């Protein structure tokens, strides 16, 4: 009996050793393979990135993904392995083959983390055929001709109301959150032009002034909630959905719930009130294409989020830079001083165009990598390394690959003195500048509303120059010396404020 017990004890001890050693051995083999034998093993990068995606997930969550990856580029060159199956390229020559040639590579699975209520949106859809039905129904609304014909008057009206409000707020002697105002402008422009009914963001600003209520836009929490999704963008879908289910239960937020309810109600209402025979609105076109009312409302919500956040950030950044650079603001005003310039198409004015382009380059509204999946036949790319030598890389099918606007927009080789706001650089842009400036993405999956967003900014910057509303403005608050952002897919400004204050005259 004693011998049998001893044998059992030995067996149990050996089983325990196996249970402990087997996982360690498996991990060791996995790490060894990833470092030395993986198809991407010859792509330069830190060992911690080659063995696990945790490094990248952490920096994505922490909001310093782009600066962390850019630091790797300074060490390893323009092609860096940032995950076991993940590559980042900071050479603009990679843009065309990845994003535009032959339709570009397909989006990676993580984009479905941006689905709304289980519905793939025009932005998040992975299946090109699924997206095509929806985008084809509405794309004509975003053409420059349609915007000029149907949208310009709406945009100008929204801009004029906002300028009047900024002027009134400037006289108060208190800090003015120009980011919030940009969001209100963008939200009203998008909803009135595309949905046929204004949300009323600027009206909220006007009402808050009359009641001395400095609260933010009622849709802000809705927008900020989906901005925050960006910190989990790169997670596998199953982990993302688990967090999506758990976090609201662990950290309930009544303000977010109220904001979501307001936006949902607004979108449900514009869909319910649609006249399918007469209306030419965004939602009417979707419904006529066979999209359900439920999904049409979701697509409208996605439109409101995307149209509000990025344009609001771009407007806020441009105002900040103009307040920081009175001489640049004066040049803008000088260009708009003649009746011909002030009454013409703002997109034809060279310096104004330079201000908008430079603002889009520097705003970091969407700073992070735009990942794509290498097709089954693989992808070859040749680039110049820091040593000056040329290197060629082979990426097998299934590799996640992409370029980040942050790395391209602040590339000193293409944009000398890249952190300086310098509209003059766009008066005679190089081919590389035009190639690498991708504030709205590139190719068939670039932002569908890019022409509308650009028009909003051109009319707004025109009004800033004509009105002189930024005379005497200076930056203040947390962003006094520089705009700080959490580098998520849609950047987040800490405190949700870019503030200006006006010197009393």
Automatic annotation (TrEMBL):
<dbReference type="InterPro" id="IPR036396">
    <property type="entry name" value="Cyt_P450_sf"/>
</dbReference>
<dbReference type="InterPro" id="IPR050121">
    <property type="entry name" value="Cytochrome_P450_monoxygenase"/>
</dbReference>
<dbReference type="GO" id="GO:0005506">
    <property type="term" value="F:iron ion binding"/>
</dbReference>
<keyword id="KW-0349">Heme</keyword>
<dbReference type="InterPro" id="IPR002401">
    <property type="entry name" value="Cyt_P450_E_grp-I"/>
</dbReference>
<dbReference type="InterPro" id="IPR001128">
    <property type="entry name" value="Cyt_P450"/>
</dbReference>
<keyword id="KW-0408">Iron</keyword>
<dbReference type="InterPro" id="IPR017972">
    <property type="entry name" value="Cyt_P450_CS"/>
</dbReference>
<dbReference type="GO" id="GO:0016705">
    <property type="term" value="F:oxidoreductase activity, acting on paired donors, with incorporation or reduction of molecular oxygen"/>
</dbReference>
<comment type="similarity">
    <text>Belongs to the cytochrome P450 family.</text>
</comment>
<keyword id="KW-0479">Metal-binding</keyword>
<dbReference type="GO" id="GO:0020037">
    <property type="term" value="F:heme binding"/>
</dbReference>
<dbReference type="GO" id="GO:0004497">
    <property type="term" value="F:monooxygenase activity"/>
</dbReference>
<keyword id="KW-0503">Monooxygenase</keyword>
<dbReference type="Pfam" id="PF00067">
    <property type="entry name" value="p450"/>
</dbReference>
<keyword id="KW-0560">Oxidoreductase</keyword>
<protein>
    <submittedName>
        <fullName>Cytochrome P450</fullName>
    </submittedName>
</protein>
<feature type="binding site" description="axial binding residue">
    <location>
        <position position="447"/>
    </location>
    <ligand>
        <name>heme</name>
    </ligand>
</feature>
């Amino acid at each position: 009996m004693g011998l049998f017990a001893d044998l059992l004890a030995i067996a149990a001890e050996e089983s325990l050793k196996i249970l402990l050693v087997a996982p360690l051995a498996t991990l060791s083999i996995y790490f060894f393979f990833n470092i030395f034998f993986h198809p991407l093993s010859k792509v330069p990068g830190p060992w911690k990135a080659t063995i696990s995606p945790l490094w990248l997930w952490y920096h994505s969550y922490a909001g310093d993904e782009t600066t962390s990856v850019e630091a790797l580029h300074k060490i390893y060159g323009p092609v860096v392995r940032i995950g076991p199956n993940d590559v980042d390229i900071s050479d603009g020559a990679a843009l065309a083959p990845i994003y535009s040639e032959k339709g570009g590579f397909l989006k990676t699975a993580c984009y479905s983390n941006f689905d709304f209520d289980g519905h793939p949106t025009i932005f998040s859809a992975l299946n090109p055929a699924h997206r095509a039905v929806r985008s084809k129904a509405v794309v004509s609304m975003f053409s420059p001709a349609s915007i000029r014909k149907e949208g310009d008057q709406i945009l100008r009206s929204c801009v004029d109301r906002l300028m009047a409000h900024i002027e009134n707020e400037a006289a108060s002697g208190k800090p003015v959150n120009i980011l919030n105002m940009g969001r209100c402008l963008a939200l009203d422009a998008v909803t009135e032009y595309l949905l046929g009914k204004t949300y009323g963001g600027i009206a909220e600003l006007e009402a808050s002034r009359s009641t001395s209520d400095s609260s933010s836009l009622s849709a802000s929490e809705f927008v900020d909630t989906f901005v925050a999704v960006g910190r989990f963008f790169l997670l596998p879908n199953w982990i993302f959905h688990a967090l999506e289910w758990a976090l609201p239960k662990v950290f309930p937020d009544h303000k977010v719930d109220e904001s979501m309810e307001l936006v949902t109600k607004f979108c449900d209402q514009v869909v319910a009130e649609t006249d399918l025979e007469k209306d030419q609105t965004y939602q009417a076109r979707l419904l006529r294409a066979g999209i359900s009312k439920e999904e049409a409302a979701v697509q409208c919500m996605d439109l409101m989020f995307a149209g509000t956040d990025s344009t609001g950030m771009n407007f806020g950044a441009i105002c900040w830079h103009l307040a920081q650079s009175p001489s640049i603001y004066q040049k803008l005003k000088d260009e708009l001083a003649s009746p011909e310039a002030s009454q013409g198409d703002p997109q034809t004015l060279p310096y104004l165009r330079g201000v908008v382009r430079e603002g889009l380059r520097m705003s970091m509204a969407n700073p992070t990598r735009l990942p794509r999946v290498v097709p089954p036949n693989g992808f070859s790319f040749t680039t110049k390394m820091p040593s000056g030598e040329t290197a060629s890389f082979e990426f097998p099918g299934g590799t996640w690959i992409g370029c980040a606007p942050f790395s391209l927009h602040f590339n000193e080789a293409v944009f000398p003195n890249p952190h300086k706001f310098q509209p003059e650089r766009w008066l005679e842009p190089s081919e590389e500048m035009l190639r690498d400036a991708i504030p709205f993405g590139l190719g068939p999956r670039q932002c569908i509303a890019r022409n509308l967003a650009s028009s909003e900014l051109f009319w707004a910057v025109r009004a800033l120059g004509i009105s002189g509303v930024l005379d005497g403005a200076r930056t203040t608050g947390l962003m006094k010396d520089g705009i700080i952002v959490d580098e998520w897919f849609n950047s987040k400004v800490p405190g949700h404020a870019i503030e200006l204050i006006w010197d009393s005259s």
